[in-house]
């Protein structure tokens, strides 16, 4: 993916025509990305229920703001926003952690996990606890980013080699040294987090694009 992510913006909302949304992001990557500042890449896709999720990574909040203030960015968004059929939500996350370098544009399956947490600091500790053990337990998980917004919304973007291997990994019992950590991790959320499965993720980065 390249670079160190310090700021993430998550955009999500319902769309009726996924391919039109895909084409809109393709246009951004082709026409607007070359003039952007601090943009490290975007992971996006549409879930089975028609929810578009786009996770954009930047080197800083200031760079993301400068990108958003460009006239061409505003024009692109005004056109793209018409593709949504309902409310669009934005999560600006200034606290970002990376596991295994933040993921990979070569991932065949991406899962976005979103929820509210009571203790963001503890969640960040748990995210990094047992990294080596987790890597050995789940080789299908080739990286992830964990992002926290000021209102307590937590968004983790997990990158897997393939959906088949990810589902197989989910069925594996964790080793004893990880079991407690994983249980505590889930207990930090207020209720059950939401899962957004991107079966065919769209990957964009300054060095190129993989559909």
Structure commentary:
It comes from Nonomuraea longicatena. This is ABM domain-containing protein. The protein is of the alpha+beta class. The chain has a single domain (7-201), classed as Alpha-Beta Plaits (2-Layer Sandwich). Helix content is 33%, strand content 34%. It is built from 7 helices and 10 strands. The protein has helices spanning 18-32, 61-68, 71-80, 120-128, 131-137, 163-170, 176-187; strands at 7-14, 39-46, 51-58, 89-99, 109-116, 141-149, 153-160, 194-198, 202-205, 208-210. It has a 10-stranded antiparallel sheet with strand order 8-5-7-6-4-1-3-2-9-10. Helix 1 (18-32) runs antiparallel to helix 3 (71-80). The longest helix is centred in the N-terminal third of the chain and has 15 residues, at 18-32. It is globular, with a radius of gyration of 17 Å. The chain starts with 6 loop residues before the first strand and ends with a strand. The mean pLDDT is 91.
């Amino acid at each position: 993916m390249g670079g160190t992510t310090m700021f993430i913006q998550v955009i999500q909302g319902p769309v009726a025509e996924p391919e039109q949304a895909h084409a809109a992001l393709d246009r951004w990557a082709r026409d607007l990305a070359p003039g952007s500042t601090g943009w490290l890449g975007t992971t996006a896709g549409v879930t089975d229920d028609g929810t578009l999720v786009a996770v954009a990574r930047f080197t800083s909040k200031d760079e993301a703001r400068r990108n958003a203030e460009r006239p061409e960015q505003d024009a692109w968004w005004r056109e793209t926003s018409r593709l949504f059929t309902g409310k669009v939500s934005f999560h600006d996350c200034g606290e970002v952690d990376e596991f295994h370098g933040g993921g990979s544009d070569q991932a065949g399956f991406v899962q976005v996990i979103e929820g509210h947490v009571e203790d963001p600091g503890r969640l960040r500790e748990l995210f990094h606890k047992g990294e080596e053990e987790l890597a050995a337990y789940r080789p299908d998980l080739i990286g992830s980013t964990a992002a926290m917004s000021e209102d307590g919304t937590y968004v983790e973007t997990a990158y897997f080699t393939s959906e088949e291997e990810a589902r197989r990994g989910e069925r594996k019992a964790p080793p004893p040294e990880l079991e407690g950590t994983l249980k505590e991790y889930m207990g930090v959320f207020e209720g059950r987090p939401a899962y957004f499965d991107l079966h065919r993720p769209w990957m964009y980065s300054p060095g190129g694009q993989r559909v």
